[in-house]
Amino acid sequence: MAEQFPGAVLDLLEAAGDRPVFEHGDRAVSGHQLLALVRRVTNGLRARGVRPGDGVALLLGVTPEAFAAVLAAHTAGARVVGVRPGLTDAQREHLLADTAVQVTDRPDGTAAGALTLSDLLAAEDDGTRPHVSGRPQDVARLVHTSGSTGMPKACAQTYAAMTAAWVAHPDRWPPAVRELAPRLRRFLVFGTLASQVMMEYGLLALAAGGTLVADDHPSFPDSLVRHRATGSVITVARLTRLVADVRERPVDLGALRALMVSGSPVDAARLRQAADVLGPVVFHGYGQTETGMISMATPYDEPGSLGVPPVDLEVRDADGRPLPPGADGELYVRTPSQGCGYWSEPGLSAEVFTTGGWVRTRDIGHLDTRGRLWLTGRARDVIIVNANVHYAGPVERVLAAHPSVAEAYVVAAPDEHTGEAVHAYVVPAPGRTPRLGELHALVAAELGEATAPTRLTLIEEVPLTPAGKPDKRALAERGR
Predict the structure, then answer these.
(1) Is the pTM of this model over 0.90?
(2) Among 362, 358, 320, which residue's Cα sits nearest to residue 340?
(3) Phi, psi at 367, each rounded to 5°
(4) Per residue in 401-460, pLDDT tens?
(5) 212 and 18 in contact (C-beta within 8 Å)?
(6) Cα 75 to chain centroid, rounded
(7) What are the backbone dihedrals phi and psi of residue 170, each rounded to the nearest 5 degrees, phi first?
(8) What one-character-per-residue DSSP string does 402-420 give?
(9) How much helix, strand and coil, in percent to the nearest 5, is found in the chain?
(10) Which of 90, 176, 243, 246 has a CA that sits 20 to 30 A from residue 17's CA?
(11) Within 10 Å of residue 449's Cβ, how many Cβ atoms?
């Protein structure tokens, strides 16, 4: 039986030897040094009783030690939960509820009983290659959604799925990834390495012989220039600002070769503007928490296209029947590394993870006659803020509970800073006048700041579709 994840990553670190694989501030950490950190943290976790299948929560930044801790938790065979910044207290407690151990490098984020990363690094380094304990059908990690339904949903991914992933195996790279990987010689990482996207592109950079370059407080384009970064991940909103800033204040981005945009659609006009200002550097990825990468367009693909999917993909009508090229329908996919369901939510799992191993994306699109994928809409009522999906329904329910609100409807509105933002259309309660500040604070307290409305429009009544349902498309058009 093939060794489970992260065995292939440990092999990459061993092969890197004395070559720097991670830079943080003035430090350059080699493959052998990072492998030693993995050994120490793995030994520290095992000494504290962590066994395969145990839940381990990670509240970590972007240091070499944090990267080692992620790999160590997987080496121990744990069910890894990454806890990102920006969650409400209730949401964070929800993520931590089913974990045996919590590890943090954040002085202000230590929960009662949590282990500090420095505690684990005090373990002995025995100098031997760590034994990888993951079992194929055990859950390797829980990747949480935005939490806009109240509490974040946890998508479960097994060790078998992570082992089957292409990222650490150059012989498995799809064509677009083979174009991307050599451009990641100096890959800028920020935020948290517990992020699904940041971690996977970081592993790709390692597999391509590159170096991860960390920035605790990134600012584009300055961080790209300062670190001589050749690649990084970027949201649509940040890409828009970067293009505008570089056009107004040109800087030397001669080293830059790849910006990976994912999480939100990018329109063709914006891609052309980016190419004019930055050159052929934008790779437009399409994937989901549940599936991983589905398709990717290179800078040389037609703007608006998502390239040719290297995975199983079907476009289906409302009755589940496959549609021919050119016809729009809901996208169903199967990927090697897809999730197996939502943790402790069998009903929702059955709705999304369907028979035959197909995953419902709840996105609308089509394949053209050349096999290229084009997205044209959403089957879900969602707003995508800073590349995170937020559902409209929970926001509407919170708004409708306010005494000044009779009815509430929210739609996505374009936003220069976040890509999309929440625009609330409200029918006032008799004799009352809703205020944006009050409604914003209410939603932020219940669901988090990202879901709070930034715009408010008072309406006498909601427009209806011919079927008598609220016409939210008409509301969205009204706000453009």
Answers:
(1) no
(2) 358
(3) -100, 135
(4) 899 998 889 999 988 888 899 999 999 988 999 999 999 999 999 999 999 999 999 998
(5) no
(6) 22
(7) -55, -30
(8) STTEEEEEEEEEEETTTEE
(9) 30, 25, 40
(10) 176
(11) 13
Q: 469 - beta bridge partners?
A: none
Q: Domain ranges for the chain, please list them.
A: 7-164, 182-378, 382-478
Q: What pLDDT does 18 receive? A: 98
Q: Distance (Å, rounded) from C-alpha 309 to C-alpha 303?
A: 16
Residue matched to tokens 């994840």: 5
Q: Phi, psi at residue 412, to the nearest 5°?
A: -80, 135
Residue with tokens 């990987």: 181
Amino acid identity of residue 294, one-letter, is I
Q: What does R_g of the chain's alpha carbons equal in angstroms? A: 23
Query: What spatial distance separates the first Cα and last Cα of the chain, rounded to whole Å?
Result: 56
Kind of pairing between the strands at 101-104 and 115-116:
parallel
The pLDDT mean for the chain works out to: 91
**What 8-state DSSP symbol labels residue 230?**
S
Name residue, tokens 């996505």.
Answer: 412
Torsions phi, psi for 214 (to 5 deg):
-95, 145
* Contacts of 303 by beta carbon, 8 Å cutoff, 6+ apart: 268, 269, 271, 272, 275
Token duo for residue 123: 């373990």
Instruction: Look up residue 341 and give its two tokens.
Output: 């369901």
Which ranges of 215-313 would DSSP assign to H, the alpha helix?
A: 222-226, 236-248, 268-278
> What per-residue confidence (pLDDT) applies to 478?
83
Q: Tokens for 265, please give them.
A: 């659609």
What are the beta bridge partners of residue 364? 330, 377
Instruction: Say which residues have a Cβ less than 8 Å from residue 284's Cβ, sequence separation at least 6.
Output: 261, 262, 266, 271, 296, 297, 301, 306
Taking only the tens place, the pLDDT of each residue in 295-313 is 999 999 999 999 999 999 9
Give Cα 100 to chain centroid, integer Å: 24
Query: Domain 182-378, what fold?
Result: Rossmann fold (3.40.50)
- Cβ proximity of 396 and 389 under 8 Å: no
- CATH superfamily membership of 382-478: ANL, C-terminal domain (3.30.300.30)
Please check whether the two domains, 7-164 and 182-378, share a CATH topology: yes
Amino acid at 77: G
Q: Which of 311, 344, 324, 335 is nearest to 153 (CA)?
A: 344
Q: CATH topology for 7-164? A: Rossmann fold (3.40.50)
Whole-angstrom distance, CA of residue 130 vs CA of residue 133: 9
List alpha helices for 279-355, DSSP H: 346-352
pLDDT at 126 over 80: yes
Return d(Cα 17, Cα 90) in angstroms, integer: 43
Residue identified by tokens 């994937």 is: 287
